[in-house]
Design goal:
This protein is of the alpha/beta class. It contains 18 helices and 13 strands. The strands form 2 sheets. Strands 8-9-7-10-6-11-12-13 form an 8-stranded mixed sheet, with helices on both faces. The chain has a 5-stranded parallel sheet with strand order 2-1-3-4-5, sandwiched between helices. The C terminus is likely disordered. The structure holds adenosine-5'-triphosphate and magnesium ion. The site of magnesium ion has 4 residues, from α6.
Length: about 400
């Protein structure tokens, strides 16, 4: 089971053990190998099951639990020990760490804190075995003006990512007032971002996953609220928690952001690995990119995430040249997506993603290659159409466009 950590837990307290189990069961990256309600049996359980992680809840007997940490570290040195307690006593933390615990989690435990600790363990673990990334990659798609193609790119990028068997993808529609990701996927979701935000106090991974709508492409959708006035239920804090939880069980999170550049959109950008800034080659769009980049440039953390995506290249309406556009915005153009009005209208009106409706179309190949470029994958199955697509897009041999036209 690649990229899954096997975990054994011990907690004499039935209620906290059940809670821990339900949190772990919601995580796609962990396999509950064994559970134990008695400290005295746990060393044997670990020796027999050889989990990657031993989790020791300390509160039933902190002293005994600390001894147990030391025993496990001594007997099974390959096993990473995590502990939890509702005490923030520095002495207890110090003793558990000295005994060999790698992470100390505070009860009541937040799923996202556990997930972050597990990711650190996974990184160390993979450092020894392979270099597969286990962290969720967050991609926000933003636009320099309305109708520039943000939702088309976000939805179809999510579907392209989901077509890889080792990916699990969630699409979050953060265009709270007018988002239409559900229409693109022809789905009628039962729950929305507002329902999840409303239940934030009792939200765990199980509930969050139940609130997502699974599309047959593999993409899980969390759509915008149905009622306009419910948009206010989505706060910065609730969104932060929702993103934090989604991160724990998906390999990719794609966010369709609004054109209002609200604090929620900026939270999404802060949380993202990459911010795809979609523009077209006309003056109002390029001028907005310059204005937006002035804001992004204020923070080096944000500035470095931005990737300029030029959409509808080749549209016959007197577009500004790529070279001039690049000079105007003062940045490289990361990707070009061709204009294909016919196919895009069809996929939108039929609610079918590009990968399904027109898998061989140049625009589909372009988005698929964009997904590969963003995830660092090389396209082993690159066929004739792909080569044509790249050549047409002037992307050969580098993925960055030199912007000559
Ligand atoms: N590469 C493309 N070629 C042709 N048409 C496109 C392309 N990308 C998007 N479109 C069309 O542009 C229109 C707007 O696209 P989309 O809804 O994705 O933009 P948006 O930026 O999300 O808009 P909004 O500001 O309303 O959220 C749609 O009709 C879509 O079919
Ligand atoms: Mg949109």
């Amino acid at each position: 089971m690649a990229n899954v950590l096997r975990i054994a837990i011990v907690d004499p307290n039935d209620s906290t053990r059940e809670h821990l189990k339900s949190v772990l069961l919601g995580m796609g990256t962990v396999w509950l190998e064994a559970e134990c309600s008695r400290y005295e049996f746990f060393t044997d359980v670990v020796e027999q099951t050889k989990p990657d992680i031993s989790f020791i809840a300390m509160d039933s007997n902190p002293q005994r639990a600390t001894q147990l940490v030391a025993e496990i570290v001594k007997n099974t040195p390959d096993c990473t020990v995590l502990v939890s307690s509702n005490s923030t006593d520095g002495q207890l933390i110090l003793e558990s760490m000295r005994a060999g615990a790698k992470e100390f989690l505070t009860e009541p435990m937040k799923p996202e804190d556990l997930a972050t600790a597990l990711q650190r363990v996974m990184r160390r673990h993979n450092g020894n075995r392979d270099s597969v990334s286990t962290e969720c990659q967050i991609l926000s798609v933003a636009g320099a003006t309305g109708g520039v193609g943000v939702s088309s790119i976000a939805v179809n990028l999510a579907c392209a990512l989901a077509s890889e068997p080792d990916h699990s993808v969630v699409l979050l529609d953060l265009d709270l007032a007018l988002g239409d990701a559900d229409v693109f996927l022809d789905t009628i979701p039962e729950y929305t971002l507002a329902d999840v935000a409303q239940n934030i106090d009792r939200l765990d991974l199980t509930l969050l996953k139940k609130s997502l709508t699974k599309h047959h492409s593999g993409v899980h959708l969390l759509p915008r609220p149905i009622q306009l006035h419910d948009t206010r239920l989505v706060t910065r804090d609730s969104l932060q928690r929702i993103i934090g939880l989604l991160k724990t069980s998906f390999t990719h999170l794609v966010i369709d952001t609004s054109k209002s550049f609200t604090p929620l959109d900026f939270l999404a950008f802060e949380e993202s690995n990459d911010v795809l800034m979609v523009t077209q080659l006309d003056l109002p769009c390029l001028r907005n990119v310059v204005r937006l980049m002035m804001v992004f440039d204020e923070s080096s953390a944000l500035r470095d995430k931005v990737k300029i995506i030029v959409n509808r290249v080749g549209e016959d309406n007197g577009q500004i040249s790529l070279k001039k556009s690049k000079d105007t915005i003062g940045r490289d153009i990361f990707w070009q997506i061709p204009n294909d009005y016919k196919v895009m209208v069809e996929v939108r009106n039929n609610g079918v993603p590009l990968v399904e409706h027109a898998p061989k179309a140049t625009i589909t190949q372009s988005i698929r290659q964009l997904a590969n470029a963003l995830t660092g994958k090389t396209d082993e199955n690159e066929g004739e159409t792909d080569i044509k697509a790249r050549r047409w897009l002037n992307l050969w041999p580098s993925r960055k466009v030199s912007a000559e036209k």
